[in-house]
Amino acid sequence: MSKNHTEIWDACLKVIKDNIALQAYKTWFEPIIPVRLDSNILTIQVPSHFFYEWLEEHYITLLKKVIKKEIGHEARLEYSIVMENSDRNTKPYTVKLPTSDKNSLKNEPMNMPINLGDNPIRNPFIIPGLKKVDVDSNLNPSYSFENFVEGDCNRLARSAGFAVANKPGGTAFNPLLIYGGVGLGKTHLAHAIGIEIKKQNPNKTVLYVGSEKFAHQFIDAIKNQTTNDFIHFYQMIDVLIIDDVQFFAGKEKTQDVFFHIFNHLHQNNKQIILTSDKPPVEMQGMEQRLLSRFKWGLSADLTTPDLETRIAILQKKMYSNGIELPDEVVEYLAYSVNTNIREMEGAFTSLLAQASLNKKAITLDLAKQMIDKFVKNTAREVSIDYIQKIVCDYFDLSIDMLKSKTRKREVVQARQISMFFSKKMTKSSLASIGAQCGGKDHATVLHACRTVINLAETDKQFKGYLEDLEKKLTLQ
Fold first, then answer.
1. What is the third-level CATH fold of 384-474?
2. Residue 335 · residue 307 · CB < 8 Å
């Protein structure tokens, strides 16, 4: 009995899921809907033209392989792309893409343009006195894309941010929620998106505001009986950037007013950008209707940068300040301060100040003296990659093996111990820990932590492993 289009696509997804990171799978493949199978042509529906372009650019080789495996050598793929108008009505149009030749896309004709309906675009209601006015965007010009160093720790978030900057309100990433620990670049990236949008669209009203300032403005509006003015002001923004949205937790009225502002902006294809210290699934004290809207677009995480990325960040900072440091000093600084970018840049500034005030050349010895003091004076946490290195060295495993999908007992145990210490000794979210341990989800991390605790209570040898490792990690 031959398979239908749904069964074939499900079989393709099983293979795809085993070959890419979990976050990438959730972002780029879970939203796809199989539409039909005609002979050897499989049609899949994707949310937007940008979404289709991203698949074609980054996953076409994998798609070709799985489609051919399931349908046969002559298999072809077509995309049905949803086009949205301002009233959220959607209709697809189709792009034909032969899976045998990526570049032939340029020669393939698209279907004729479709009529999206006769409904007029609804203009936002703006009360008199609040017509388009000059709004200070509150953007920091030094937080640009040019000053944002890309690495594995932030590649998805940066790519999505750049896509939003080029087409605000016109991608599948609305809202775009950027989450991660303290000092990892969330605010920088949010500003960079706003700056790029203003550069390309000077007439768009872009506003960056911290969540606490938003809440205080709302309280003032209630006191002054100007709530309607407050709401209508935010409804006229073209690109709204809210930083640290987790601070809305427990503030029911603030959440309620933001819910209505969010809905209005989203319905009118205005771009919403949010930052948070955790993904929606881990936010406490937030209304479910608001959390569900946070999940409409893309949640992209920023993790602790690896050593190479930290070195690149320092080199970028040196270049922008017009100074040079010995390579050994840069490497020592990048290795020693590995908690977050903000602390590392603080240590870098302190080192420069120390050398300047004492009129000393910056040597490795000076760097060691200063950084040792700096690290002692900061509440230092170890990084996930450092924990993984210590655990792998202890059990004589490679990092690649730890992050692989193997189910060998000794590897699974080391992986679970890495997750346990990452949760215990870092401020990273469960989703972030899982992503850095081979693309696991937050539920897997929780299960790993429970397993480690249970084993420590019943297995003396295992408890000894944990005690040894904790000493190594705290004596770093």
1. Chromosomal Replication Initiator Protein Dnaa; Chain: A; (1.10.1750)
2. yes
